[in-house]
Amino acid sequence: MTAYQRSNWIWLAGGLSARKHVLEIKGGTTTLTDALTTHFSEVTTLCPPASALHAHDATSGCVTLHGVLDSLAAELPSPQRERRYFRLFQQTRRVLRPGGCLYVGMANPNWHNRVRNPVRAWASVERLLRKAGFVTVHAYHAEPSYDHPSVIIPTRRAAVVAYETTVAPKSQRAALRFLFGRIALHRFLYPGRIYLAYV
After folding, report:
1. Which of 107-111, 121-125, 159-163 has the lowest mean pLDDT?
2. CA dihedral defined by 151, 81, 32, 5, rounded to 10 degrees?
3. What is the longest distance spanned by two Cα atoms in the chain?
4. How far apart are CA 186 and CA 150, in angstroms?
5. Pairing of the two strands 192-198 and 60-66
6. Can you tell me the distance from the alpha carbon of 33 to that of 31, in angstroms, rounded to the nearest whole number?
7. Dihedrals φ, ψ of 141, to 5°?
8. Global pTM value
9. What is the arithmetic mean of pLDDT over 7-32?
């Protein structure tokens, strides 16, 4: 996976590279640093602190949380996760400039092969982003994973059905996936999730 491919999501946020500065908040085992340097002239990296991000208000055009929620989910008991996510989203909202974008890449907790993943329901992430003050939130499925997003699909039923109809091989499994897409159960089909939230 090249740095160029790992940053496929940037094309969804048109004109983002023109904002020049990106703040990468590290988490998990992988980083976006190499990918981000191909698109932004200035990349600052931080590790997620216990309380607040040590960055000035409205200084970044983009903030990335690549695998951070997965790391927090593994470290925190269930009742504390949602509060921690919300505080982190508030802090990222604070450091973004007007029109800025927050990228969140995470494992899909509802994927059919990940029944016991500790992350809470996928819908709560979008709800918490809006509660933290993000005006627009776009959600996407990522395949084969958010870390290797060869395919990025909007979470709308029509987009999922179009992808499954066009790309998936003709088989009983493909028919089942198509049915899941048609009846709005597509949240179980893909291992990765990507969110782009705008100030």
Report:
1. 121-125
2. 0
3. 53
4. 18
5. unpaired
6. 6
7. -90, 145
8. 0.84
9. 76
Instruction: Tell the residue number behind the tokens 């980083």, with chain if given.
Output: 31
Given its phi and psi angles, is residue 179 left (phi above 0), alpha (psi -120 to 50 degrees) or beta? alpha
Phi, psi of 107 (to 5 degrees): -70, 145
**Could you tell me the strand order of the sheet in which 42-46 lies?**
42-46, 21-25, 60-66, 96-107, 192-198, 136-143, 151-154
DSSP per residue, 83-148: HHHHHHHHHHHHHEEEEEEEEEEEE-TT-TT-TT-SS--THHHHHHHHHTT-SEEEEEEEES-SSS
58 by DSSP, 3-state: which? coil
| 3-state class (DSSP) for residue 168 | coil
Bridge partners (DSSP) listed for residue 101? 62, 198
